[in-house]
Model the fold of this input.
Amino acid sequence: MNKSTYDSYMNPAKTGDETEDSTEAKPETTKPSEGSSKGSSGSSSGDKGNGSNNGGNNGGGEQAPSKNLTAPGEYTLGDVTGNVTISSKDVTLKNTKINGNLKILESVENGDVTLDNVNVTGTTEIYGGGPNSIHAVNSVLATVIVDKADGSIRLVLEGGSDVQQIEIRSGAIVQNVSTGQVGSIDIAESVPHNASVALSGNFDSVMVHAEQISVEFGDNSTIGNLEVFEQALNTVFKINNGAVVNRAILNAIVQFSGGGALHSALVNVEGIDFSQLNQSPTIEADPTVTSVVYSPEAAEFSAIDSTRQIVLTGNAGSAFKDITSFATWEVEDSSIAVVNSGKIQAKGNGTTVVQAQYGDFEINVPVTVAVYNEGAAYPTLEGIQVTNGSAKLEFTEGLDTSELTVDDFVVHAYLNGAEQQLNNLQYRNGEFTFEPVNRYGATLYITVESDVNKTHFAGSQSGTIKLTGFGGHIKDVAGEAVANLQISFRKGLDNKTGEIVGSVTTDTYGNYQIYLPPGIYTGELGGGDTKYIKTYLIGVSAVNVENRNENQTAIEIPTQDETRIVLTWGKDPADLDSHLVGPAGDNSVFHTFFADKQYYNNDELMVDLDLDDVTSYGPETTTIRQLLPGTYTFYVHHFSGVSTIKSSGAKIEVFHGAVASPSASFTVEEGSGNERYWVVFKMIVADNGTVTFESVDTFTDINPLNSLQSSVDHSEEEL
Done:
C-alpha cells in the first residue's frame, strides 16, 4: 500500500454529518479476521461518535428525519417518530416522547445531559458524559446501554423514573434515587479488564458477565439477586457499609469484601473467597440434589498429622455432583482430629465423629486414631503432592524409598464421588505415576497409605487436583515452533512477580499443557540463559471449558546491529497497532505498519514489522535491521476493540543491540480520554551512530504521520 492510499482511508473526506470520530478501516485483505469495514462493530469509534442518523423507521410507513441536538440548551420536541441524537454537552431535553432510539454521543465528552420527563420506546445509548453526567428525571426508558470508552460516566435515575433494563458495557457509575421501577442491571462481558462499575441505590437484579473487573455496591444499597456467570472469572465485589446483597448465584471464582452483608449464596464453583466479609453468607444447597453418598464411610489413622479425604457426592438427577467443598464440616473432638472441606487430619489417639451438613442432608463419619508403634522412631508418610499423572510422596527421615514397591502401599482415587481406577499405576523412588485422567472440570482425590501390616512405614496422606487448566502453542516471529522452552505461571492477571504456582516445558512441536485451578494466570517465558527476550502470556483456567489456544510468540534477542521495538498491552482494546516512521536515506521517511510491513533501501531490508497481533495482549515487534542517522518516531494506533489506549496498560520496550534487557521502556499512564493515537517516543541516531531516546508521550485524534511527513517536506524546502 502506498502512502497516498493510506492517507485516503486514514483521513477520509467528511460527508454529511460525519465527524472526526468516524471509524477508520483497514483493508480486508490485510486483516481478514477483522472483517473490517468502515463503521464496523467492535471498533471503539464506529457510529457511536457519528452525528449522522437518517431517522428511524417505526414499523413501516414513511421514514421520519432525525433530531440532532448539536448545541447547549433546553429542548422540547414533543412527540417524535424516529431517532434523536444529542451531540453537545449541557443539553436538557424535556417533555418529549421518542418513538425510536435516543443516542447520547461521544462528542458530549465529560459534559452533562438531563432527560426531564422523556419517554423513549426504543434503546437509549449513552456514549458520552462525565462523572456528574447523565440525569434521567421522571423519565420512562425501555433499554439503556452505557458504553463510554474510558469509563468515566455516571447515570443518575431521579424522581419517578422507570427503566426496564440497563446494560453496562464499560466502566460506569449508576445511581438510583428514583421512586420508580428499575429493572435488571446487566454488566456485559465486553467491559474491559480492571474497569470499575459502581451501583448505588436499590436494584432488584444484577447480572455480571464481565471478567476481572471491580463491582462496588454503595453505602446502604440493596441488591435483591446477584447472578455471576461463568465468564466473570476473578471479578471483585465490594459491598460497602450498610449495603445488602440478599442472594447470590455464583458460577465463577470471584472475591467479596467490605463492611456490608451477603445473606445467602448458591455456590456452584470451588474457590470463591468470602474471607474479607464481616460474616460469610449462608451457603445454599443445590435444589437439584436429591440424595448424597460419601466415601470412605469411616476413617482410621496410624500416625499423627496423617490425612484422609472424605468425598461427598450429591445425586442431581441423572448426574453426580461433587459437593465436598460446599458442605459445612465439623468434628466433635478437635483434640483427636480436625477437618477442612472433608480432609481429616489426625491430632491425637482416640475416637471421634466428623459431621458434614449440606442443605437438609447430614452425614457422620467415625474417626479412629491409633498411632502405630507410638513412642518409637518409626517412619511415617508425611506429605503428598498430586498432579494429573503423578503423586509425589514425602516421608520422615530414615526410610529408603528406593526399597519400597507398589505392594507396600494402598492407593485410592475418587472422581465425582466414585472410586476411580488409575491406569498404568507405577511406583518408583517416592513417586506414583499414572495415565492422566481425562475428565475436564472434575476434582481428582488421591489417598495413599501404608499396607495393612505397616511393613515399612505408617500413616496416610490425601491430595487433590482440580482437573482444569489450559494449553497452547509457542512459535517464533517466523512462525516456527519453539521446543523445550520453559513457561512459569503466576496466579493473577499481569502478575509478573511473586510465587510461581506451576511450570511447563514446550514439547517438540512447541505445544504445552498445564493443569491449574480455575483462575487467570500470567506465564513468563524467555529471559535467563535462553536466546529469547522475557515475555508473558495470559492463560485462563475455566471450570466449564478447556482453553487450548493460550498461545504466544517467543521473541529472539536482537543481534548486535539490530534494534527491536516490542509493544504489549492488556485484553482491551483487542487491536493496537505499531507504527514506526524514520529516515529513508533519500531525504524522505519510511513508514512501517500493518499494511506496509517492510522497508527496503537498495534491495536491502532495513525495517520490518515482524509480528502484527490483532487479538489482545501482543506482542507486536518491529525490527530495525540497520540504523540510519536521523530521528525515528514510534506511535500506537487504537484500531479496534473496547476501552482506550490510556486504559490498555500498553508498554513499549526497545532492545538496542544484543541485549536481553530493554534499553528503553515506555508505559502508558492510565487516565481519561479516548484519543486514537499515542505518540510514544523518538529515537535519535547521530552521525557517529550514537543512539538516544526521547519520550514524547502525547495523545491525539489526528494521524501523526501527517505532521511527520510535513516536517520532512519543510526541511527539504529549506534546503
